[in-house]
Amino acid sequence: MNPVKNLQDTFTLHNGVAMPYVGLGVYKMTDEAEAYTAMMAAIDTGYRLIDTAAFYDNEHMVGKAVRDHSIDRQELFITSKVWNSDQGYDETLRAFEQSLKQLDMDYLDLYLVHWPVKEKYKETWRALERLYQEGVVRAIGVSNFHIHHLEDLLMDSVEKPVINQVELHPYLSQVPLRNYCQKNNIAIEAWSPLARNRLADEPVLNQLAKKHGKSVSQVILRWHLQHQTIIIPKSVHPERIQENVNLFDFELTLEDMKQIDALNKNERFGADPDHFDF
């Protein structure tokens, strides 16, 4: 039912690059000491994917943690994103250079268009294609793209995005988008996979947590994995970082999965890409 057996298990993107299924999201991690401790704890725990962005203002912290840890850079998978105000062809190339400088790295594993900025995301994508062709990024993708954005992008692109990173959790299960991406061989990655902890009191999830002897968070993250969704839960607490990866010693049944699927309300806790103030 689910191929993910451990924390280092990977999803093979359509260009052949292997990306870990589970990573650490670092959005809003701006306290230097706290962020550093969290990132070091995550790598120690076995996380190999770290997801940052220019907008998060912590790329330099990710770079420092990676440099200070004894792990080889090549064993890690580092993602960053180009922010809305930096979109456009030349602007994106400059923004990428800036991100590499902040990270103090000579390549990225994955670079994403952060939001589909109207009139700009195609030029931004053209810049990402160039970076990919030059070999300074191993894979390129998008974030917060609806189906219509993807269709529009694919009409004029040389490269197809390997991934679409979107808000996704049991209250916003994004089935049409997931089906579209699956059909087009575009991986799905969930930001806010735990819905910012807003599902903690959901009776169905609590009942399943009790049944499996797990936390509600672990049940939700397991649900994502069994749907073959890449996840980047965020936490600055080492014990939570550990809890978020104890996902491999239980399995949700088909019935459990259906119960969680049925919780969908198409409810967003983040912005809707169609109504985002760029």
Give the topology.
Blueprint: E1 10-12, E2 18-20, E3 23-25, H1 32-45, E4 49-51, H2 59-68, E5 77-82, H3 89-103, E6 110-113, H4 121-134, E7 140-143, H5 147-155, E8 163-167, H6 175-183, E9 187-191, H7 203-212, H8 216-226, E10 230-231, H9 238-243, H10 254-261
Parallel strand pairs: 3-4, 4-5, 5-6, 6-7, 7-8, 8-9, 9-10
Antiparallel strand pairs: 1-2
State the main characteristics.
two-stranded antiparallel ribbon; TIM Barrel; alpha/beta
SSE order, one letter for each helix or strand: EEEHEHEHEHEHEHEHHEHH
Are there runs of 5+ residues with pLDDT below 50, and where?
none
List the total number of helices. 10
Portion in strands: 5-15%
Distance between the termini: 40 Å
Strand order of the largest sheet: 3-4-5-6-7-8-9-10
Structurally, the number of domains stands at: 1
CATH topology: TIM Barrel
Short description:
By secondary structure, this protein is α/β, with parallel strands linked by helices.
Q: Could you describe the 3D structure shown?
A:
The chain is of the alpha/beta class and 278 residues long. It has one domain (10-196, 222-241): NADP-dependent oxidoreductase domain (TIM Barrel, Alpha-Beta Barrel). 38% of the residues lie in helices and 14% in strands. It has ten helices and ten strands. The chain has helices spanning 32-45, 59-68, 89-103, 121-134, 147-155, 175-183, 203-212, 216-226, 238-243, 254-261, and strands spanning 10-12, 18-20, 23-25, 49-51, 77-82, 110-113, 140-143, 163-167, 187-191, 230-231. The protein is globular.
